[in-house]
Amino acid sequence: xxQSSEPLRKLGFLTxxxxxPADPAVGHESTLQVIELGEQLGFDSxxxxxxxxxxxxxxxxxxxxxxxxxxxxxxxxxxxxxxxWENPLRLxxxxxxxxxxxxxxxxxxxSVGEPMHYDTVKHELYPDTxxxxxxxxxxxxxxxxxxxxxxxxxxxxxxxxxxxFSNRVEPHSAGLRDRLWYGAxxxxxxxxxxxxxxxxxxxxxxxxxxxxxxxxxEIQKSQIRAYREAAAASAQSQGPARxxxxxxxxxxxxxxxxxxxxxxRYVDERTPRTRAPQGPRGMLFAPDLIGTSDxxxxxxxxxxxxxxxxxxxxxxxxxxxxxxxxxxxxDIATKVGPALGWTxxxx
Length: 347
Fold this sequence. Notes:
The protein is α/β, with parallel strands linked by helices.
């Protein structure tokens, strides 16, 4: 198992892609510029949250397609795409297309479950089948099978002079199936992901078991270990199971006084929710990490969840300005990452 004394192998970041509804193009362009900056700074990956009917990126696949033409090395991912909003066959086509455009750099993070606030949108999302839709693991498993190239139908071949049909999703992008991730917040989901050949995204939100003490880092460690055990025993495993941890990390080394004040205010507003389990399922939130890069590195090295991984995708705060993201990403790449033993990517 990775230990805190071992170097961090991959460093990524996650953004919501916030925009002003009065001028959404500016926010989308800002996100593309942030991804370009990430590549210049040597980050290994950039991940996009998936937001529907909100003022954040609703179509991360379109953003990844655009970013793929403005970058050459950095990997691009979703963290996560809620499958309840998606048709698995159509999504498989889109993901494979963008993966080919990106030269095999796409990492699709997925989750299942009923869409958020489903009762308010089901009449438009599934007007005829709202009560029949399957929001279980089967939905993401179907996507994985289609991406892997399993047959969709028996029909294929030439019809007439021009038309030729395939029995699988086209285009097919070899290797994309191995870059599917599952965003798991519970032990059950982590074990399912490992048993079914998915990489694991473990974020700043988890659900403890009924008998577990509500200590975020220890529960995250337990879930990651359960995932690795399930992956090791799975016949679907194609190689070493990958795990990425996503915490909110806000280094202040090069921040201005005004930025430091704003960042601290943001953290202070969010900290109360981390002090006790939330909601009927006892949801736990990880505290945001703020301070100098040395202080953040020290906290991470002591974090039981961080000790289990050698990949991270640090989450950018939701509501900051473009210049704030530039400062935070620059400090993460030039100070936090090296303090964790990470070496920037090149090319």
